[in-house]
Amino acid sequence: KAGVTQTPRYLIKTRGQQVTLSCSPISGHRSVSWYQQTPGQGLQFLFEYFSETQRNKGNFPGRFSGRQFSNSRSEMNVSTLELGDSALYLCASSPAGGQNIQYFGAGTRLSVL
Amino acid sequence: GNSVTQMEGPVTLSEEAFLTINCTYTATGYPSLFWYVQYPGEGLQLLLKATKADDKGSNKGFEATYRKETTSFHLEKGSVQVSDSAVYFCALSALTGNQFYFGTGTSLTVIP
Q1: Is some CB atom of chain A closer than 8 A to the CB atom of B43?
Q2: pLDDT by residue (tens digit) across A60-105?
Q3: Which residues of B are less than 8 Å from A103 in CB distance?
Q4: Which residue, A45, A112, B5, B52, has fewest beta-carbon neighbours within 10 Å?
Q5: Under an 8 A CB cutoff, do B104 and A31 touch?
Q6: Least CB-CB distance to B99: which of A48, A90, A103?
Q7: Spatial distance between the Cα atoms of A24 and A29, rounded to a whole number of angstroms
Q8: Tens-digit pLDDT profile for residues A47-59
Q9: In chain A, whose CA is at the least distance from the CA of B38?
Q10: Which SS3 state, helix, strand or coil, does residue A29 take?
Q11: Chain-centroid distance, C-alpha B75
């Protein structure tokens, strides 16, 4: 079974641009969560999607948004990029709701110049 | 609310030394507890988990016991190897929903 796939692995953008990151969960998994990882803040929860609906949301500004498609694939969008958005963005999938294990992708490293 | 506090790093040990990484949590209800490991350039991998009080999770020589009375889930390994060098994250999953709360991570370096 293929794992969680995130694309692209690396991105370089400039301030003010927008970016879209993609996550394909493990086949059969319906929940996708997104995290931002930085050296100073650690892992911070962005949001979780389940069956195309945002179910949980972390404390990030509205510039961060996401969506989930009917095949459970998810995208995350960041508009009007700021230098502080430079981070490793991790996606995790799990089979359903409740206390399930989250399986992580390798991440997308975003650098904002 | 829910939160996880884990031991600050970095931790440097000699090969075959004993490892303990402390983790305590705050949660409403009875969460599930996890340890994840992140190797350089990779995402997080599940190392072990425990879903109820007194459960012991174990994998690859690592162990952690869910202690409700001390709200702790300390990670231990009797004899570390160079290949164990990584960042270790303690996490909890709340009773409802699928939101995970992670500690700040502890970097471990094992030297030969």
Answers
A1: yes
A2: 999 999 999 999 999 999 999 999 999 999 999 988 655 578 999 9
A3: 46
A4: B52
A5: no
A6: A48
A7: 10
A8: 999 999 998 888 9
A9: A106
A10: coil
A11: 5
